[in-house]
Design a protein that fits this description.
This protein has 2 domains: 181 residues, no CATH class; 95 residues, Alpha-Beta Plaits. Helices cover 70% and strands 8% of the residues. Strands 2-3-1-4 form a 4-stranded antiparallel beta sheet. The chain is rod-shaped, with a radius of gyration of 31 Å.
């Protein structure tokens, strides 16, 4: 009879531990996902900003040698990420492919000018910096016009700031919810063992002695939960990176290491802290209070 009761108790404990680990791993997965967004936030915003281009429209009489020299000067500039020269013929081909009509045959000539598309580094992809760059480029005699959509540039920067703020706010909110869920899960786990804790107190065990096995298990379970969460995260990344390869860097070792350490740290530390405070409450209870 006692053996059956012992087996049943062990089975319940294992089930309790398993449920606790799975619950915490799912919470850590959500925290890791948000952490991944935060770690990639700068990369995401840079990717959006560096997709902004401005076009340098060249004069009709601009020589090929001068154009190539201008492009080299631009490539050497500290604010330029990349440039692309588009000749009159390339511009005409692009327009014909877009609209499906041969306007050159209709007009009898190619009215499109040659141009250079300039891609800036993210920190210079704003209206103030682009305005200063435009003034600098006005010194070149072969440049007819510098064209970019100021309203679009301003809108992109504003949206990036708003999205960054929303991600930060969402991260803080989710962190609070995650800590609450982990705390409640561990409190229930400790609550189910409150009679064991009380029995240990009755035989004279010190609080430090009682805490020790619970805290060691909390670290082990936190480590298990963290690894389960990391497996889920890396599995998700493996599939997502095929669609967003340029934005979410599955091959960015630094981000992956930071993500690994962050989830592992949260899994261990949150488990330990929540278990410690849950135990502190039950260690203070009187025997008649254990039933409420």
């Amino acid at each position: 009879m006692k053996r059956k009761e012992t087996k049943l108790t062990r089975r319940r404990l294992k089930s309790s531990y398993f449920t606790s680990i799975i619950s915490i791993s799912l919470v850590l997965f959500l925290l890791g996902f948000v952490g991944l967004l935060i770690l990639n936030a700068k990369k995401l915003s840079n990717h959006v900003k560096e997709s902004i281009t401005f076009s340098i429209i060249l004069k009709e009489n601009a020589k090929e040698v001068d154009i190539r020299q201008l492009q080299k000067n631009l490539d050497a500039s500290f604010f330029v990420k990349a440039t692309e020269y588009i000749s009159k013929e390339q511009a005409a081909d692009q327009l014909q492919n877009e609209y499906g009509e041969d306007f050159i045959d209709f007009l009898g000539y190619n009215p499109l000018p040659s141009s250079i598309d300039v891609y800036l580094f993210a920190e210079y992809a704003n209206t103030d910096s682009m305005s200063r760059i435009e003034n600098q480029l006005s010194e070149y005699s072969l440049i007819k016009e510098v064209y970019y959509q100021k309203s679009l540039v301003h809108l992109i920067n504003e949206n990036v700031r708003k999205i960054s703020f929303i991600i930060l706010l969402f991260s803080v909110l989710l962190f609070i919810i995650a800590v609450t869920l982990i705390n409640n899960t561990l409190r229930l786990s400790v609550y189910s063992k409150r009679f064991i804790v009380n029995a240990m107190q009755l035989v004279g065990a010190t609080r430090a002695f009682i805490r020790k096995p619970f805290l060691i298990k909390s670290v082990i379970h936190g480590t298990y939960a963290a690894f389960i969460a990391l497996c889920l995260l890396f599995g998700m990344l493996y599939f997502v990176q095929k669609e967003f390869k340029e934005v979410i860097g599955f091959q960015d070792v630094q981000i992956l290491i930071m993500l690994f350490l962050m989830v592992l740290f949260l899994g261990i530390v949150l488990n330990w802290i929540c278990t410690f405070f849950a135990l502190r409450k039950f260690l203070r209870l009187q025997e008649d209070e254990l039933y409420y």
